[in-house]
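Lab notebook, bench 4. Still working through the backlog of constructs that have no structural model yet. Next entry is a single chain of 54 residues. Request: give me the structure tokens for it.
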Amino acid sequence: MKKNNVLKIAGYSIVLILFAFFIGKISQNEYEDEDDKKILEIEQILKNREEKIM
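Model written out:
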């Protein structure tokens, strides 16, 4: 009986760790997408400034 309880706890722990890992990966991808958008906006602003100067 005690062995089964230990295995259940270990199983739940592994599932929780994997769940936290996947949530972290998803949120990291969202931040990277936002960073890419900001970089593209900055590049566009710089191009517009160069065109105005020339």
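Notes after review: Residues 22 and 38 are 25 Å apart (CA to CA). Residues 24-54 form one domain. Flag for follow-up if needed.
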